[in-house]
Amino acid sequence: MLEQLNRALEHIESHLDERIEVAELARIAMTSEYHFRRMFSALAGVSLSEYIRRRRLTIAGAEVLAGERTLLEIAVRYGYTSGEAFARAFRAVHGVGPSEARRAGAALHSQPRMSFRLIVEGSSSMRYRVVEKEQFRVVGRKARVPLVHEGVNPAIADFIRSVDKETMRRISALSDQEPKGIVAVSDDLAPCRAEGTELDYYHGVVSGAEVPEDLDALAVPAGAWAVFENSGPFPQALQYLWRDVFTQWFPSNPYRSRPGPEILRTQVSPDGKRADAELWIPVERTEAQSKTTP
What is the pTM of this model? Predict the structure, then answer.
């Protein structure tokens, strides 16, 4: 998988002055667009679109300082429809506008070219299972919240505190299948998964029961799920679990992510410092695996 991802990175480098189609990158990586975006952001720590933007403006910055082309020629070459749009993007990355950089010979920022390598330490293993589930519903309360990569998400914490105990009791009673009990469900995330982008957060249960009118529900179609377990400091261990799934498990196993919600069941210790977690990720077998399975 990493070899194909690196080929996709080579394609980006050779087409920085052209339109880069995510569909073509996914084809080179031999996976879906959805999985490619998620794998890239997990491995690179930055969204695909942001990486391409930074690389383009890194190369454009060198051309600005060289002075061989006009600023408008450089802007058009790297996909900007006007000098003003190019100047705004240039300043966002380099901290100065292109005209100022050319006049003063300013120091610019550089986004290095990336390549991916898999480092195998062998010091730990991931506990996982793959299960098939019929269609079900997530039933509970829903809020639109910003994505936070590390630490407690204040918007989610405030939302959970706003749900009264009687409502939580009624929601808990609707749990009738795995994962059992109260779960945290993330859905409708932005493909880039950038910090601060919004998602639908459900605090509820997995259920096949009828939905009370005063509760929110998310219908989830049938499919395969990879279920991961871990224990560790709260909330860091939960956030690292998601990262490890995409940077370690997917590159080593014949599955890829598919569209759908992510479900997290957490049991926090009485002192709030540690937690046991179970993370459900919707998956599908890669085409190569499907062809070899009877």
Answer: 0.72
